[in-house]
Amino acid sequence: MSNKALRLGTRRSRLAMAQSGQVADAVSRVTGRPVELVEITTYGDVSREHLAQIGGTGVFVTALRDALLRGEVDFAVHSLKDLPTTQPGELALAAVPEREDPRDVIVARDALKFTDLPRGARIGTGSPRRMAQLNAYARTHGLDIATVPIRGNVDTRIGYVHDGELDAVVLAAAGLSRIGRIDEVTDFLSVDTVLPAPGQGALAIECAADNASLVAALGELDDPLTRAAVTAERSLLAALEAGCSAPVGALADLLADGQTIKEMRLRGVVGTTDGTRTVQLSTTGPVPETYDQATALGRELATEMLAQGAAGLMGERAQ
Question: Is 301:295 a contact under the CB 8 Å cutoff?
Fold first, then answer.
């Protein structure tokens, strides 16, 4: 391999730059080559519409993928939950590094926990998935909350709390951790309360499929257990025919007996955003060793969820 700098395509947001910088350091270590960040503006960055309105699927990804296909960058880093579930043949998902904490978190005024928020508390989130599950939890536990749709970067969202416009906002733990702001979290939401987005907390490193040496080099950063988990979660999402802005939560985790990993459990949930109706199921099986085994786990659970009426809870199913 030459010593020429590798060009990493990244979104311009502070979070994207932080996580791309971390990947750049890791890629430099495994390739011995310098890595330069190439900032690319995506439609999702400039649009002020809510993600659910602009479709969600691919809005943060398309411009990066176009730059890859045009040869303007050598590889790109995405938040895996932003990736459409169909992988283009010309691009390889070369690595899924070890996942960060997949949970959602609350940043609330007065350091409050979710269950301690006052009656009528206004909670900001741009995610139908979070709205559906928070409202469902509130209904079953006698809490009185109002979910408020918001957009914007981390500073903007937390600013709504500091300014008194909102009582709390919901964010991803991984994102706050990557930008060094995890200490601002006032409550970590258990995955029993809110299941994360499929792939949440994981990164995707993508490059041209025909660049075999780069695919192999980036593959050094792949974590097989993380890849198996997110593959199962994304297979569930795909089988529900839902885009990444749909109210679908999923998490595959490993069940261990002492030091020995025995099985993988996949949980899925879909619900109406007002929390009145949800379908939540889980399945457990051997830890997938192949892509096909991981996708089969997701499809199997999706089939059960659809049989219990999941399709009718998602509004318009994404085409």
Answer: no
Report yes or no on whether pTM surpasses 0.85. Answer: yes
The structure tokens 């969202």 sit at 157
Catalytic site residue 82? yes
Residue 33: what pLDDT? 94
Confidence check: pLDDT of 159 > 90? yes
Whether 52 has a pLDDT exceeding 50, the answer reads no
pLDDT bin (cut points 50, 70, 90) of residue 256 is confident
CB of 79 within 8 A of CB of 196? no
Distance (Å, whole) CA 8 – CA 68: 9
Q: What is the pLDDT of residues 233-251, one digit of tens each?
A: 999 999 997 665 678 999 9
Q: Are 287 and 264 in contact (CB under 8 A)?
A: yes
Angle made by CA atoms 118, 147, 198, in degrees to the nearest 5: 120
**Can you give the three-state secondary structure of 264-313, one letter per residue?**
EEEEEEEECCCCCCEEEEEEEEECCCCHHHHHHHHHHHHHHHHHCCHHHH
- The arithmetic mean of pLDDT across residues 151-163, rounded, is 92
Beta pairing, strands 91-95 & 203-208: antiparallel
Q: What are phi and psi of 142, to 5 degrees?
A: 70, 25
Residues contacting residue 173 through CB under 8 Å, at least 6 positions apart: 100, 101, 102, 103, 104, 105, 182, 185, 188, 201
Residue pLDDT, tens place only, 163-222: 999 999 999 999 999 999 999 999 999 999 999 999 999 999 999 999 999 999 999 999
Catalytic position from the list 45, 66, 74, 82: 82
What is the helix (H) or strand (E) element at residue 4, kind and residue range? none
